[in-house]
UniProtKB/TrEMBL annotation:
This is Phosphatidylglycerol lysyltransferase C-terminal domain-containing protein. GO terms for cellular component: plasma membrane. It is a multi-pass membrane protein. Its main location: membrane. InterPro entries: Acyl_CoA_acyltransferase (IPR016181), LPG_synthase_C (IPR024320), PG_lysyltransferase (IPR051211). One of its GO terms (molecular function) is aminoacyltransferase activity.
Length: 345
């Protein structure tokens, strides 16, 4: 790729190969500090770029939902952010920032944004990780139960096999959504059509009974300071044996440990949990009040309690607050726009 001109550009990518095939974007990924930066491999990702870095975002009407943080060297991040904010003002766009590093939100706060806690993310350090001992007894019992019920787990080995099995996976998606009475989430989970097993950016593990797939988990590679695998998307048929999802994840963890090439498994973001830490940003009182109310009601927007229980069962070594940043005085617009764009409501 030739040197970028001095003036910023906006480019569009549709999958991991588009991003990794662009030498500038591949370079700036090394500045990613948040495990969910892998969401930038989704379709219809826009990148605001200059020679020093990039900010990835999704657009829905006038909402510019930025994900993954300000990807630039530390000394260039403030200037890149200022260029991006000038760009959004010229476009009369409404910028919202999610899934960035805490230092990103400090910078945004210094640029006049309100920053509030939205939930938390959970990660396992794989260095020395083991599921032995009493504290994992219940988890091991669940996994044993699924084995006794005839469940087997394996990894899809190629893109060709993925395409061959994709109709079964899509059927599971539909059954899962019907059971949950939910719409398919957008933007904040992997776009199912961008999964690329051969790229090295995705791995898909399936649970089978006989010839039929019962459940699956898609893992995405994460770049940056805590590189590893992100437990991205999991779906299952109704009434599958208890412990099946845990069996899949245990199999993947054992593979990751055996390969010894990554240090983290990121279990991902859960909204509306882990409130109460005084050190956390909560600039907008109305946003904080609504988020706490939704948290107390559980399941109105998202099954946060069950997701948290699943993630905590793996004994995560890192539990980090997740924030949202939005223009001051726009708390309700930020919350509504984000929920609408991601199909959460």
């Amino acid at each position: 790729m030739s040197m970028l001109p001095d003036i910023p550009q906006v480019i569009t990518t549709g999958n991991a190969q588009d991003v990794l095939g662009n030498s500038h974007l591949r370079k700036v990924l090394c500045y990613a500090k948040h495990p969910l930066s892998s969401l930038l491999f989704n379709s219809e990702t826009l990148w605001f770029t200059n020679q020093k870095g990039a900010i990835g975002f999704f657009q829905d009407k006038n909402l510019h939902m930025c994900v993954g943080g300000i990807l630039a060297p530390d000394e260039e991040r403030a200037a890149l952010l200022q260029l991006f904010l000038n760009f959004t003002r010229e476009k009369r766009a409404f910028p919202v920032f999610l899934h960035g590093d805490e230092s990103d939100f400090v910078l945004l706060k210094n640029n006049g944004f309100s920053v509030n806690q939205l939930g938390a993310s959970y990660s396992l350090s794989l260095n020395g990780y083991s599921m032995t001992g009493k504290r994992f007894q219940q988890l091991r019992n669940k996994i044993s139960k699924s084995r006794r019920a005839g469940i087997s787990v394996r990894e899809i080995s190629s893109q060709e096999e993925y395409y061959r099995l994709k109709p079964q996976l899509e059927q599971i998606n539909q059954l899962w959504l019907k059971e949950k009475h939910a719409k398919a989430l957008k933007k904040l989970v992997i776009d199912f059509n961008t999964v690329e097993v051969n790229s090295g950016e995705h791995r898909v593990y399936i649970a089978t009974r006989g010839e039929q797939i019962q459940a699956y988990i898609v893992y995405s590679y994460t770049w940056g300071e805590t590189s590893g695998w992100f437990h991205n998307l999991s779906r299952k048929k109704p009434d599958i044996p208890d412990g099946t999802m845990q069996f899949i994840n245990e199999t993947a963890i054992n593979d990751f440990l055996g390969e010894g090439t990554v240090s983290y498994l990121h279990l991902g973001f859960t909204p509306l949990v882990e409130f109460g830490e005084e050190r956390n940003f909560n600039d907008s009182a109305i946003f904080h009040k609504i988020a706490k109310w939704l948290s107390s009601k559980g399941g109105i927007v998202y099954p946060a309690a069950s997701q948290r229980q699943y993630k905590m069962s793996w004994r995560p070594s890192l539990i980090e607050p997740e924030y949202i940043a939005f223009p001051k005085g726009k708390a309700m617009k930020a919350l509504w726009s984000t929920l609408r764009t991601t199909n959460s409501i």
